[in-house]
Amino acid sequence: MIRLPFVLVTLFIGLVIGLVSGTEGQAARKPLLRGELPEVELGERLFKDPRFSHAQDFSCVTCHFSPDLRRGYADFQARTPIPLRLEEMREGVNLPQFTVRNTTALIDLFWGEKPGSSNLLHSDGEFETPEALVVAGLTGRNMGWLASEKSAARLRIAEVARLYPEIVGEGGERLSDDEAIERVAGLISAYMRSLEFSKDEQGEFNGSPYDHFLGQNGLPPRPAAGESPKQYGERLMQEIESLERRGALKWVSEGPKGARFERHDQDFAFGARELEGLKIFYATESGRAIRGRNGVGNCATCHAPPAFTDFRFHNTGASQEEYDQVHGFGKFMTLAISRSLEPNSPSSQFAQIPDLAHPERADLGAWNQMGSHKPVLLAQMRETFCGVVPVFSSCSVAELDEASIGAFKTPTLRNLGHSGPYLHTGNRPSIAAAIQMYIPAGVLARRGLLRSADPEMAGVVLTGRDLAPLAAFVEALNEDYE
121 - beta bridge partners? Predict the structure, then answer.
C-alpha cells in the first residue's frame, strides 16, 4: 500500500511519454541527428508509438524511460506494473500485478557483438536476436495482451505498420502481415542498436570520469588481445602503482561540461576514494596476497572492462536471497527443482516472484531457458564452467542445467546511476546496497551454502568498509548520456 502512489506516478509518467511523443500525426517528428540513419529515426517513432498495445496507451517508452528523465532506458520501479484487464478482473482471475523482473536498461546492449553471433537478450537469455525480443514485447503482457491473444497482437503490429508510409512505401506497397511485423521489428532493433555510450574515434569509451582518469594517465582502457580481465586488472594495478610511486598520478576534477554532471547529482571527478574502489574492484585473491589488501571484489571477472559486463550468465545469489527473505534462511537450498512436462518450454513455476503462499515458486533465471538447449546459451555456460579450470568432470548438459539455476545476465556497470533500483529483483535501492549483497553471498559461496553459485563468487571477500569506495568507483562510471 505504501508504494501504490509511486506506482501510479510512474505509470502516469510513462503513459504521458508514450501518448505525447509517440502517436503518429499528433506529435512533431524530431529532426534527424547528425549522422543518424533514417531507419533509426523511424525506429524511435515506433518505439514510442502506443498503438501497438491492447488499449493503445502503452509503448516501449512506458517502461524504458528516456535520458531526459535521468533514466538509461529503464524506469524507477523495482518491478514494473502490468496493465490490468478489466474483463479478467470481473471473472476473478488472479492476474500478476508486476513484471517478474526489474526493467533492463538498453544502452550498449550489443557492444562487442561479433559478426554472425548475438548477445543473448533479457536477464535470462530468452532471446537470441533483438527482433525476437521486440515482437515478444509488442505482443506480450506488458503491452496489455493476454497469452491467448497472440494472433490479435500480431495483427495489430501489421495494422500500425501500414499507417507509416516509410514502411509500406508512398504507393502503398502490399505487405503481408509477417513482412510488416518483420519490418517493424527490424526498425525498432535498429534504434536499440543506436543507443551507445560515448566513444572516441578509436571506439574507446570516453564519457565517464573513469575513462578520463585512464586517458589522463596514459593507462590501458581495455585488455590486450588474449589477455583475460583478471590479467588486465593486474597489469592496470602495476601501472597505477608505478605512477603513484613516482608521484605522477593525475586526478580528474572536471569533465567536458565542468565540475558537475548535468544529469547526475555528483561531481565529475576521479580521486583517491574512487581509486581505492578501483583497487578493490580489480583485486583478486592472488593480488591480495601480493599487496595485502583487505577488500577483494573479484568484480572484473564478470563485469569485464571496458564495457563492464561479459554479457554472460552468473549466479551471484540474488534469487536465493529474495526467496530466503520470504521463506526463511536455507529454504532455497532445499527447493525441489525439476523440468515441467514440456522440458523444452520455460517453466512458469520457476519464473515467478517468491510468494509466501506458494513456496514452489521462484525465479531461476537462465535455468528456464536451458531446457530448450539453445546453442548460444549452452556454449556460454560451457565456457564459464568448462574452461581452463573445469568445475565439472564431464560438463554434461545435466551438469550445466544445474549450474544455470539462479544465473542471470551480467548487467553493465556503466551509467548505473540511471538504472536503479538494482538487481533483477529490484530490491536494492542504491549502488552501495547492491554491493552489500556480495558480502554475505561470498561467505555463503565459500561455505557451500549458495546453491549453484558461480565459481568466482567464492573469491569475493568484502567487508562493510569496502562499500563506500567501491560505490564511489562504480559511480565514476556514470556519464551524461544524451
Answer: 127
